[in-house]
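Subgroup meeting minutes
Present: P.N., E.W., G.H.
Scribe: E.W.

1. P.N. recapped why we're keeping a running log of single-chain structure predictions: easier to compare across weeks, and new members can see raw inputs and outputs side by side.
2. G.H. added today's entry (367 aa).
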Amino acid sequence: MNRIICNLCLILTIAPVSVAWAEVCSFPSARVEFSELLAFEGVPGGGFLVGGRQGVLMESYYGSYSAATVVPVASATKLLSATRVLQAVERGEINLDTAVSSYLPEFTGDKGAMTTRQMFSHTAGYGDDTGATEISDMTLTLTEAVSQIACCRPLNSGYTVGGQFSYGGVSMHIAGRIVEVVENGDWQALWQQELGAPLGISSIDWQGLGPTQNYRIAGGARSNLKDYARLLHMLSNEGRGNGQRSLRASTIQTLWQDNVGNLPVAYAPPSIATPIRYSFGGWLYNDRPLEQAPLVHSLGAFGFFPWVDFERHIYGVFMIRSDTGVNNAMISAYESMLNSIKSEYDANACTPMHWDDEIYVDGFEMF
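Output recorded in log:
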């Protein structure tokens, strides 16, 4: 009873403390649901942003959260990392379907056959590995951690390279090290140099779980609301953001491809609905046919939920920091919020709060 009373009080008291709504699209239903969700979870605050190719449509902060609030994003890191890997692919430094042994010769035998595409789609032969010390030991460097994986961590029992889908972090750790090798640099520094600085991002790094050089490629980043949204804006705008091109539109379409298909699912988070569809560092929201431009999201274990609707060219972030496992209870609320946002966007000619960039449409400046 005390929790119920407390939650009711929070519904009344957690109100936006900094709000600037678009003139047309204020997304009232989603805002109400978000406030109720924060109250139900008993978290001190949150952030909520929706944008389109020309700029932010709505940005709001609740409770103790502000534009300066930085939170660990957990598995929302995967989309941040995937975007950086795709830059290396676009530049010809990595081939998505070349064996890891070509880049890291210490990977031999069956493990040596893993490809970057498989490593970033949870089909490489690892997975269900959140307790893997190689990715959680903060005293290691990324180089040392991946050397330990090469030396001493076999593929999961009964798994084969490319033979199943199993969600986890070990394989993405390996792919992050490939980027360091082919670009002769440090993962975190390279990310800031090649993505962060060009997009005007300053809060994103790989220290979300504590100080380390063992950058948790699949789950260690942190960000404020607007900085993560800057990356999503670039993805939704054919690869262009902050007045610069970070990726070709054709490269971004790698995120559209389902890499699971008919593979058996050995492990997936319970919050993800079947059928399981996973692209390259992100989930394909299974509300539309595969031949249609998708909605891609990268839900984090603490409740951080970034998404891009490539059909509508809109994007958004629901930002909270709660306990591990919170998504099992809140995923239905997020789905409802997404549906109401899409409905209002389809019904209105939304006006941005401010203009961030030129619109880049299919076929224009794609090289």
